[in-house]
């Protein structure tokens, strides 16, 4: 899985870029009338409400949000739509295809593929949500503080992030998780947080450094606003948007990562029900029973897609420049 | 000379921007003309349509969202708007050149200035790269950039603001065009440098007998160099006049307001005049005279009937129902 | 420039030590290499102690690490527990993965940049929308899924390519695995190119280029593409390291005996010298690729050359 997220454009500003563009011509060609704006707090507020308004009009957002809500619901209560037990299998029915009451057919152990696909959502969603929350919290706080305070703290954190970036993520997962015997979601979550936070921290650091340079922050500082107040009231709200976007997209990739690690045999292990494990088991039967592979693979891809599209839609809404 | 007197003749030009938030009518029936050796200043606030008009004339409008929806742009008697794109491209840069406001962002950051200047000769005249580079050095000399021979290999960010704007001028001048459109050429510069760049531009214009359209919002710049002025408001020309007449006796309340808002030494101590209100949104231009909500002279007729351009004197026109009263007031 | 290179090289040292030590720590401290040697049998304590001493495993971890790094600097990557020379394993595995990576990078460059350019120039039109949607779908399908599906379709069902790769792994057999390995990055390259093109096509200097009367193809190639590709080149450069490390899934699907395959075997069998040796080399590749990208960036964008 790719670690740096190029979907998000580089936050490097070339030397001497900013001050010269007074942008009268820009306002002229696009806005026409008076430039909306006013105070900076008004701008931040309208950014969020504008974004929300745009999101509700975006079919991509609405569709992916509905899919995600559905996935979360079945992750919590899989029995709502699947009456069977994912672990009760009948070897006599191994690899049988679709039949009434069992639309997705059976796998090699004779387990009902439909039931396993439904129950598999729980592991994926749990890993995705918990790992993202952990990485966003850890990376957001560390990166934000590094960006705000700068100096040695920043340098140390940047090097530390580099160390984790230097390890290819799947390799790291193989090495780290092969030492763990538990097949539950928590070691996987822990590992993803461990290797995932630097990405978020870079984004958070970059946007805090960017927000710090805004005129209104300088103004607030000149007016005597203290460090904590400055960070919480003026910088954090503006720096949070890019973190949310990257975290949402990362959630999708973390789910894919979990499945990949499970596929390689080091992530989740039976009896945990996981799409990755099922795909791995189905992979050498693809010629005889492709349904065993296609259903869990489809569910996995759809889940990842929903989160990535959600993140994409949120980014479009929060970044009006790209329209 | 057997050249036609008029170089550029813009007739009833309409431009609109079709955006997600509606159609913005940026230019609504603008007409102006420039002759060889003449300087026309187009004056207006941001959003008045002065730059958009220039972009439509040059054929560099961002399209979409911008569309020319009507009118003609006659250059030496030929309508640029109906000309084929390839033909028009050959005119662009060679016969009709443009200088932009912000030279730092308007020059390619990853190409040396020599390459950017030389490109004009390579493309339009088929010159070899080496010859073109030699011409680039001459050009830089011409706009008085010191040590042109060495600096031709430098990148735009390595020059000062004034020097960069000289490079923009050199680029526009490269093929000795008939007409240059300068869009706020000095706005981004320090005041001291502004005068130098403006003088250079005026000097070169005289020397090559070019037509010049000078787009600006700065009345101070206009007075020294322009022959005539067109004042724009909400995508329309509201007043045209020879420069000195306009300064002496404006015939439109908007022009009057602009002149009154210039700080003057002899009025020291008085409060500075400002036109109240804001220009209208181009997606919702008020009926009648677009200036009526801000006009001190507005009557019922201004809210219902759009004033045409009334001929005030030979060579003067004003789009105000009460141009006479305004003129007499001065 | 020279000072910049030196500073970057110095910055690499702590990162190199950190990354390799982290892996070393995971393998040697979290795992038990000697127990792994004996498999399920409980090792005889005396034998185990002897092996530990032979393999330098009785020293404190930091000493082991130093000892190991000192060995590596002299070109001695040690022997795997089954007696194979790790350096020999590398000499067999790295060229294979390198070829695979080259194929993947070529796919990224040719297809990714072309698609990105097309959709960036036609922003908001149907081409753009479908390319964008396609990239999202491609990013969402994990490599091991797309790998098996494509292997089944191209290798088995339509039989246009061989479904597995021979040990020699010539370029023509690596086309399909290379495409599979490239897929996700290819989608990123497409999106990155598109965004970059879309942003730059609104830049003032591009308007200048049009106003100069340049033909469209020259505006696009000399001005638009040249500027827009800077971030793309940077991404592709960093991706070399990521692809070599990430080839593990692709190599497993197509049974390619490259770096990923050896590493996977090493990890499963807890063959510590193999794992640490391979990862160390991968970390070096990754760091060097990043350094080259940084330097390339300065070459491509003169604005940061003297910064």
Automatic annotation (TrEMBL), chain A:
UniProt source species: Streptomyces triculaminicus
Parts of the chain that traverse the membrane: 55-76, 125-149, 169-197, 239-257, 293-314
Name used for this protein in its record: ABC transporter permease
Pfam families: BPD_transp_1, OppC_N
Main subcellular location of this protein, as a coarse class: membrane
GO cellular component term, pick one: plasma membrane
Region annotation (Disordered) ranges: 1-20
Location of this chain's protein in the cell: Cell membrane
Comp. bias regions, Basic and acidic residues: 1-11
Upper taxonomic lineage: Bacteria, Bacillati, Actinomycetota, Actinomycetes, Kitasatosporales
GO BP annotations, alphabetical order: transmembrane transport
Domain ABC transmembrane type-1: 121-311
TrEMBL record, chain B:
UniProt record, GO biological process: peptide transport
Lineage summary: Bacteria, Bacillati, Actinomycetota, Actinomycetes, Kitasatosporales
NCBIfam families: oligo_HPY
Coiled coil: none
SUPFAM superfamilies (UniProt xref): P-loop containing nucleoside triphosphate hydrolases
Assigned protein family: Belongs to the ABC transporter superfamily.
Domain ABC transporter stretches: 10-259
One GO term describing the cellular component: plasma membrane
Descriptive protein name: ABC transporter ATP-binding protein
Pfam family, one: ABC_tran
CDD domains linked to this entry: ABC_NikE_OppD_transporters
Subcellular compartments: Cell membrane
Highest taxon listed in the record's lineage: Bacteria
Recorded GO MF terms: ATP binding; ATP hydrolysis activity
Membrane topology (UniProt): Peripheral membrane protein
Organism: Streptomyces triculaminicus
Cross-referenced InterPro entries: AAA+_ATPase, ABC_Ni/Peptide_Import, ABC_transporter-like_ATP-bd, ABC_transporter-like_CS, Oligopep_ABC_C, P-loop_NTPase
Keywords assigned by UniProt, alphabetized: ATP-binding, Cell membrane, Membrane, Nucleotide-binding, Transport
TrEMBL record, chain C:
Domain ABC transmembrane type-1 as annotated: residue spans: 94-297
A single BP term in Gene Ontology: transmembrane transport
Protein origin, superkingdom: Bacteria
Species: Streptomyces triculaminicus
Main location class: membrane
UniProt-recorded name of the protein: ABC transporter permease
Membrane topology: Multi-pass membrane protein
Keyword Secreted attributed: no
Pfam families (UniProt xref): BPD_transp_1, BPD_transp_1_N
Taxonomic placement: Bacteria, Bacillati, Actinomycetota, Actinomycetes, Kitasatosporales
Keywords: Cell membrane, Membrane, Transmembrane, Transmembrane helix, Transport
Any one Gene Ontology cellular component term annotated for this protein: plasma membrane
InterPro entries xrefs: BPD_transp_1_N, MetI-like, MetI-like_sf
Similarity field: Belongs to the binding-protein-dependent transport system permease family.
Record field: transmembrane: 12-31, 96-118, 130-154, 174-192, 232-254, 274-300
Localization in the cell: Cell membrane
